[in-house]
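Appendix B. Extra example for self-study. Work through it before the problem class; the solution is given directly after the inputs so you can check yourself.
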Amino acid sequence: MDKNGPFQTYDDRSDAAQCEPRLTALRAELAKRGLDGFVVPHSDEYQSEYLPESGERLAWLTAFTGSAGAAVVFKDKAAVFVDGRYTLQIKQQTDTKLFEPRDLVAEGAAGWIETAAPKGARIGYDPWVHTAAGVEGLRLAAERAGATLVAVDGNPIDAVWHDRPAPPTAKAIPHPMNLAGESAESKRTRIAEDVKKAGGDAAVITLSDSIAWLLNMRGGDTPHTPFVLSYAIQNADGSTDLFVDERKTSPELLKHFGNAVHVRKPEDFVPALDALKGKTVLIDPNTAPAAISDRLTKAGAKLKRAADPVQLPKACKNPVEIEGSRKAHVRDGAALTKFLCWAAREAPKGHLTEIEAAKTLEGYRKATGALTDLSFDSISGAGSNGAVVHYRVTNSTNRTIHKDEMFLIDSGGQYPDGTTDVTRTMIAGTPTAEMKDRFTRVLKGHIALATVKFPEGTTGAALDAFARRPLWDAGLDYDHGTGHGVGSYLSVHEGPQNISKRPVLQPLKPGMICSNEPGYYKTGEYGIRIENLIVVTEGKDVIGGERKMMEFETITLAPIDLNLVEVKLLSDEERVWLNQYHARVRETLSPLVDDETRDWLETATRNV
Amino acid sequence: MDKNGPFQTYDDRSDAAQCEPRLTALRAELAKRGLDGFVVPHSDEYQSEYLPESGERLAWLTAFTGSAGAAVVFKDKAAVFVDGRYTLQIKQQTDTKLFEPRDLVAEGAAGWIETAAPKGARIGYDPWVHTAAGVEGLRLAAERAGATLVAVDGNPIDAVWHDRPAPPTAKAIPHPMNLAGESAESKRTRIAEDVKKAGGDAAVITLSDSIAWLLNMRGGDTPHTPFVLSYAIQNADGSTDLFVDERKTSPELLKHFGNAVHVRKPEDFVPALDALKGKTVLIDPNTAPAAISDRLTKAGAKLKRAADPVQLPKACKNPVEIEGSRKAHVRDGAALTKFLCWAAREAPKGHLTEIEAAKTLEGYRKATGALTDLSFDSISGAGSNGAVVHYRVTNSTNRTIHKDEMFLIDSGGQYPDGTTDVTRTMIAGTPTAEMKDRFTRVLKGHIALATVKFPEGTTGAALDAFARRPLWDAGLDYDHGTGHGVGSYLSVHEGPQNISKRPVLQPLKPGMICSNEPGYYKTGEYGIRIENLIVVTEGKDVIGGERKMMEFETITLAPIDLNLVEVKLLSDEERVWLNQYHARVRETLSPLVDDETRDWLETATRNV
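Solution. C-alpha cells for the complete assembly:
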C-alpha cells in the first residue's frame, strides 16, 4: 500500500461478467479433485476483517465485495450468503443466475448445505480459512444431508486464479514503548503466566491484532489495519515463536524483539505444531484455522480450547495507550472539525458530492502529518444513501447532497498513537420537524450511554438499551449494535467486549475503548448516526456509594449539529451534557484550527 | 396439606444434632454398595422448587432448609454447597464439623469433586434427582479427578431414612375452562404439532407445571404450588400418557381428561420409555431426570435434546388467564391493603412482630374465601431482617418492628384464577433522609421498568438495567434479578423468561407475567423492595412509529408508602405515574375494603 494514500478508492470493484468463467474453472478444478462441492468463506488464513488482495477469494469468485459473506458451489447450483446490510448490493454485484443470494444469518452456508447438498456428495473446504468451530457446523450440516465434508490440500480457487496477487510483504516496524506503554517482554511474560495457569505448555496465536499487540509490532499487510500477517506460538516459558515472511523483518525489528522471540520461516509453522506432541496447547476454536487444531491433534498434542489469551489483555488499554488515543482524538477532531466547517459552508449550495466530501475529509486528516491510513473506508451518505448503514460510495453510486438534505459521514483515521472512529450527521440547510425529532432522540440515547455509571461485572449488553429507549418511546429502533470495541493503533473493530443486543458475556473493564453510536434510518430518505468513542474508566467515588462503579470518558471531539437538535426534547441533565461537551470541543480544538473554522466552531458549539 | 391452612409455619425446622447419626448411616450404606462418595442435590424426581416432605433428602441429611443447594459426601469429608443468600443460615443450621459450607455458584458440587475426590473413587448419584445436563458436569469433574461417577439403583438416603414420609397423594382436580381459557385438547394438539415440527414422535414431559398446564389439572402434592407429581409422554398424534398414582385421580378427573389421555400407573413409566425404541423422542436435558434419557438411549430411542415444549406456550398467558390474574390481583390487593392499613396503625406502637404481621396478612388473604395456599412463605422482615433478601421468619428469629424502623413484606397468594407476588416496604414512624433517598431510587427504577416500551425480540436481560440505574447513579445496586416469570395458578417462579443480569435468550412475549422488583439492602440496618407483577402486552401504536412495540401492564394493586418518597427526586413523568397508579389503586380497591381502610387508603394514595 502506498504510505501516502489515497487510502480510499471509489471504483466499482466488482464485475459480474467474470463470475461465469471463474465458476466454470472452479468446477473443473473440483471435478479434477473428485469433489462435488466447495465452501468459500469471506475469511482468509488469518480471519481478519480486512483482507489483502490475495485473500479476496470470495470477491474473485462471486464479485461480491462486502465485508462478510460466504459461497457454496455444487456441480449444478451455487449460492452466495450475505447479511441484511448487503441484500441490495448482492443483486447489483453478483451474477444471480449463477449464484443465488441467500441469508447469511438465518441460514448460512451450513443451513443450505443441510437442505441442498446431494446425498453422498463430497464437499470440500480449505481448513486454513475456516475456524474449528466453523468446520464443526459445516460437518454437522453435511452429515445431516448424508454428505461428507472433506478438507482439501491447497485451496482450489488459488489453482484457477491465475493472476492472483502474491501475499503482501510490507515491512513490519516496532511499536515503541512511548506508544505501547508496556514492553513486549512484560506482555509475553504475563500471557505466558496465563497460559501456565490455564494448564498449557503453549498457546497458538493466530489473530493478527493479538500478535501485533503481544510483540509491540505494526505493519502494513492489510488495508486500514497495521497488521503483519503471521502466526505465533507463545510458550509458557515466556518465549515466542513468530512465523513470518523474512522480507517483512529488519535488523531493527529483530533487535526490538530480543532473544526470546524466535523469528522463523512460515514453512516452519506446521513442523513446529508437530513438535508440540505430548504438550498441552491452548487454541481458540472460534478464531484459529481448523487446520491448526487438526494438525495438533494428529501430532499428538493435547488441545485445550479457550479464548485467545491475548484478546482481553489487549482490549484493556494501559494509561499510555489511553493518553495516546486522547491525543489522536484531539488531532483527528481538529481535522474533522475543519471538514465540518467546510461542509457546512459548501453543502447548502447543493452541489457537493459524497466522494468530494470523503476526499476532502481524507485530505484534512492527511494534513495532520500523522495519518498512516484511514481506519476504514469512510461512509459518506447523502439523503437516502445515509440510510444504508454500511454504505460504500463508488463512482456509480455517488450522489449530490441536495439542499435541505441530511448528510452522514462515518470515518476514522489510523495514527501511531491511536485509532479513531466517529460519525457526524449534518443538515445542508433546514431540517424538517421529523428530522429534528429523530436526531434529538438519537442524541438522547447517545447521552444516556455516555453518562451511565455501572458496577463492576456489567456487560455491554446490559447497557445497550439505554441508547435505544428514546427511540423506543416513539416506536423506533435501529438494527445494529450500539458499540464495538476499538483497538489501539490496531483494528477499528475488536473484541471481546461489545455494546449490543447480543448477549456477549465479557464484562466491561477499565481501559476498554468502545464506540457509542446509536442511529436512526429512514429507508429511502435519510440516516442519522452520532458516534463518539468512549473509554471505560474507574468511576469517581460517589458519596455514600457502596459499590465500585465504572463510567465512560468520551474521547471523540467534534461538534454535534445543533441545527438538528430540538432543545425542548432534552432534559436539563441532557442539555448540560451537550453544553459541557461542546465547551470541551471548543476549548480543545479552537487553538488547532484556522480562523474561519474557529469562528464557525464558536457558533457550532454555542450553549443551548 | 390442610386446605384451610395455616399455610405458613414458623418452627425452626432444622436440627444439627441429627447430622451425625444420619451421615454415619449414609456412609455405612455407601460402603455396603461399594461407593466412596455420593452427591445429594436439593432437587427431587420432579425438579420442582418446592419439595414434598418425602423429597427433602438434602434437609434430612444436612439440616439445611434453603431452597437451593447440594451436598457431597466422601468417606472422610463432606461439604454442603449454598449460594450467597444462605452463607449465614448454613452456619446456624448444619453441623459444620461434619459438612464444610462451600460456595454453590463459584464452585458447586462438580467443582469440589474435581479438586477433592480421591483418585479412583466411585462416586454415586441417583439419576432420578439429577438432570442429564447436571450429570454431564459431575461426570466431567469426576473424570478430571481420576474418579468415576456411578448411577445408583435406589437412593441410598431412602434406605437409611427410616421414618421417611410417603410421597404425597393429594387429589388432582380439573382446572376448568373458565379459568384455563383453552381446552386441554387444544393444548395437547398444538404441543403435538410442535413435537412433530421438531421431528419428534413423542416428548417426555417431567416438569409438574408443564403437565398441569397441558392437561388443565391442578393438585396439592407440593407446598405453595398446586402440582400433581407425575410424568407424561406427549405423543405426536395428540394423545398423552400420564403416569400418576391412581389415588390422586377421580372419576371426575378421568372424565375431564377424555379418551386421548391415557392414565397409567407410575410403575408403567419405565416400560413406556422402553416402548419408544426406534422413535425420535424430545427430552429437555436441563429439566428431565438423567435416568429418563439414559433409559431411552438404552432402549434404542433417538433422543432429540430440546427445551420442554410446554414451557413457552405456558408462559404466554391467554386472555382468560390474564383476566383471571387481574381479578386475583384485585382480591389480593384489597387483602394486602387491609393489612397495610392495620400495620400502619399498629407498627408505630413498637410492639408488632414479624410473625404477627405475617399471620395477620395470611388471615386477610384467607378471609377472601378464595385462597388455596400462599404462593410462598411470606418474607416478613423488620429492620435489619429486611436486608436478608430471602429471609424466612421463625420463632427464633422473630423480631419486633421498632418505631422508626422499616418493615418489608414480600408475599403472595394462590387463587384458582391467579398467582400473586407482591412486596411492600413501610416505615413504622419517621424515616431518615437516607431511607427516603434509597426508597425513592428503588421506586424510580421500578417506574422505569413499568413504563418502558420495547420492540419485539427484546429479552428481559436488555431491560434489567433500567431498574438499577437510579441506584447506580448513587453507587448502589442489588444482588438479585429484577424480575422472574410467574405462573397462572401454578408456580410463582417460572421460566423461560427472566428480567435480570443473566443473559437469558428468551425474548419477552405478549401474555408473559413477570415480577418488577428492584430493591436496596443495607446489611444490619434495613431492606427495601417494591414489587408489582407486570404483564407483557402488545403496545398501543405510537403515532409515527415504525416497529411493533410491546409494553407492560401493571396488575398488582396496593399503595406504595408515600412517607418514604422524596418527591423532589422524581421527574414529572415519574410523579405522574405514581399518582395515576395510586388513583387506580384507590378507585379499584376502595369499594372492597372496610371504612377504616378506605379512609386510610384515601390518604395513602394522595397526589404528590
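Self-check: The longest strand of chain B covers residues 532-538. If your reasoning did not lead you there, revisit section 3.
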